[in-house]
Amino acid sequence: MPEPTLLSLQLDHLNELQNRYETALAGQGYDSLLIASGAAPYRYGDDQAWHFQGYGPFLHWTGLTGREHSWLWLRPGCRPILWLFEPVDFWHANPALPEEPWQQAFDIRSRAEAGAPTLENPGRLAVIGDPGELGDIAGDHNPAGLLRTLDETRVHKTAYEIACLAEANGRALAGHRAARDAFAEGESEFGISLAYQQATRQREADAPYHSIIGLNEHAGTLHYQYYDTRPTGRPRSLLIDAGVRYRGYCSDITRTTAGPGESRFAALVQGMDVLQQRLCGMVAPGVDYVDIHRKAHQGVAALLSASGLVTGLDDSAMVEQGITRAFFPHGIGHFLGVQVHDVAGKPTPPPDDAPFLRLNRRLESGMVLTIEPGLYFIPSLLDPLLASPLGKHLDTALLAELRGCGGIRIEDNIAVTESGAQNLTRNGTV
């Protein structure tokens, strides 16, 4: 059972959502809003469905992941009606709904049918959700203006949301500690994954995203998706990017560990940790997030110079000539919430020097985001650089030694406060 404080914060959260959504509906000229939780589609030519976690706005209100074919109806000044799909079925179980105070804020009804409920006097109705689930329901389906406005309601987290994100971080940290220990014991990627799941008490399918667990050169694939079942002969490095979903809210944490005898790589990991903490220290209201991204490239350039990987160029030249992009090709982070890459991060296209950046806004109190600089040895990026005129500035022997370690990424989850920031990840130790 969650702490009473969290349950009280949830009631405040729901009151705030009611106000935000009423304002959004009035601004777009709607009288009511019907939100579909969604449902997992069946695999083509099969009778098995994909795993389901739920539509963002539905989770924003309820936190109920895995609730397929359910609906939430919102009207100004009225208690929301929540229809939960609970069929009479001897093949599958219906998930239990623990008694908690938030349920008093809803009119909760059970339905055995998967289709949309019948609404009485909906007025001008908007219906949002997976288009494949909306069918021929009356009302305006996924109106673009309203969707943009609703995305903005998720930018500034309530105290309840930040508490959930902090708890998701705490639970994930236990998994990261277990993963690090499993790596030290010589486990395979699959074994490390099992250790992480055991420590977090969360199935891989219920995690907010597929955990990235890469040993050695696999750490250089940014979204490495496979788990070797056999231990590697020489454990040189571990990169694990893994989170936990708690009451619908996601954590997203990455840690990199050097293997025994990898002193050069370990020094780079330590340097990246120092850089990452400096970048976290930049988070504050009024700061342009793009500036943090650009500062990360300057820091990567300093690491490349200090390690001897790049010589004969100053840090500014490394950034300007694209060398740091070959070692650090992704953005510095993204919004975080009921989605790992939460919505509304890019009201305008990203700048030309940061094409993969998922967040380009000026920071404000209540935002929650990630800070995740990296330094990788990716052949498809480094080989063209080595073959270019700039290749003379790279230490090929040192690169050859470090390629087998794959790469480094360190990622924390940060809440912007009125006066600065709160690191939701470093409240624990890992």
TrEMBL record:
Any one GO CC term of the record: cytosol
EC number(s) stated in the UniProt entry for this protein: 3.4.13.9
Catalytic activity: Xaa-L-Pro dipeptide + H2O = an L-alpha-amino acid + L-proline
Cofactor requirement: Mn(2+)
Keyword Thylakoid: no
Keywords noted in UniProt: Dipeptidase, Hydrolase, Manganese, Metal-binding, Metalloprotease, Protease
UniProt feature coiled coil, ranges: none
SUPFAM superfamilies documented for this protein: Creatinase/aminopeptidase
InterPro entries linked to this entry: Creatin/AminoP/Spt16_N (IPR029149), Creatinase/aminopeptidase-like (IPR036005), PepQ_N (IPR048819), Pept_M24 (IPR000994), Peptidase_M24B_aminopep-P_CS (IPR001131), X-Pro_dipept-like (IPR052433), X_Pro_dipept (IPR022846)
Residue ranges of every copy of the Peptidase M24 domain listed in the record: 164-418
HAMAP family in alphabetical order: X_Pro_dipeptid (MF_01279)
Function of the molecule: Splits dipeptides with a prolyl residue in the C-terminal position.
Protein name as annotated: Xaa-Pro dipeptidase
Gene source species: Marinobacter santoriniensis NKSG1
Gene designation per UniProt: pepQ
